Amino acid sequence: MKVIIYDTTNAFLTPGGKTTHALKLQKELTQLGVHIEFSRWWDKSQEDCDIIHFLTPTPHIARLAKSKGKKTFLSMIFDFESNKTKKEQKKTILKNYIIEKLPGTLSSNAYWKAFQYMDFVHFMHEQDRKTALSYFPKYLKKEQTIIIPHAYDPTDMDISEDLDIAKMGFPNKYLISCANISERKQSVLLAKYAKKAKVPIVFIGSSNESDPYFKKFKAEIDKKYVFYPGYVSKEWKDCIEKNASGYVLLSKGESGCIAVYEAAAYKIPLLLSNLPWAWGYDTPTDIKFCDFQNEAKAIEQIHQFYEHASHLNHSPFKIYTWNEVAQMYKDAYSQLLSCHNQ
Fold this sequence. Notes:
CATH topology of the largest domain: Rossmann fold
Helix content: 25-40%
Oligomer: single chain
Distance between the termini: 18 Å
Strand content: 5-15%
Order of helices and strands: EHEEHEHHHEHEEHEHEHEHEEHH
CATH class of the largest domain: Alpha Beta
Largest sheet: 6 strands, parallel
CATH architecture of the largest domain: 3-Layer(aba) Sandwich
Strand order of the largest sheet: 2-1-3-4-5-6
CATH superfamily of the largest domain: Glycogen Phosphorylase B
Shape: globular
Number of strands: 12
Number of helices: 12
């Protein structure tokens, strides 16, 4: 079995979960005996692959892959659409319908045209799948879809024995928010709420110094309620997370969010946006939801969450390691190869 992972954007241009997903998948599937490589556009030796695993829906490449007899698998990120209001979703469906009627490449290059060339379309949770099925009934059938969640890597944990959390200067009790400092993650909003709720939150994540949004975030750092040690090493990340009492993320949309799985592995409670992306975690026991659009309510929810947050004796929802998840992908690949070409 030879699999090629295909995407269109350089990791250094869009750092984040997609890159982590690809790297963990490649590493763990290799250990499971799958010959898996990243797409190299110049390398003709990759033409003997059995499956192309797309990380983005590219219609003309998907069509070409099928014409060459390749099996196709798409990991579909549908976070923004799943988290729109019903009214906004109806507008988007109407807009897509209009695009369908347009001539030439305006219609043929629409991303959803790739679905008809995919043997499997993979989603990270049920909310994304339901939304996609409602958007594209012409191009996407449920039996063509599969759900495989994100995961955590146990080798990234318990690696900070030599580090002393006291050196960071954080309060004895604090929450963490591990995410890129960005508009989508609503880092500035959470920082403002943290100060108003008088709740210390440590932000961990990459940033762009020239980004106006990051400059707004930096202005909120007071080292009393808003802490930002920056993008830290794996060892310091482990130290900070294992000493945290809870995790907060007010993101506008996610397709799983690897950072949430990693926080769950530390057995701490979660406070997430009260949006569909946060409702899709498997068998939740200790997930609270924040109505971030209502400032007074959100501040109270953050305060109450902090007051009760503490380490658990179990994960706040059912989680998997990357090795376990890689086996799910391998099983899906095997299922594809056992089928006749469609």
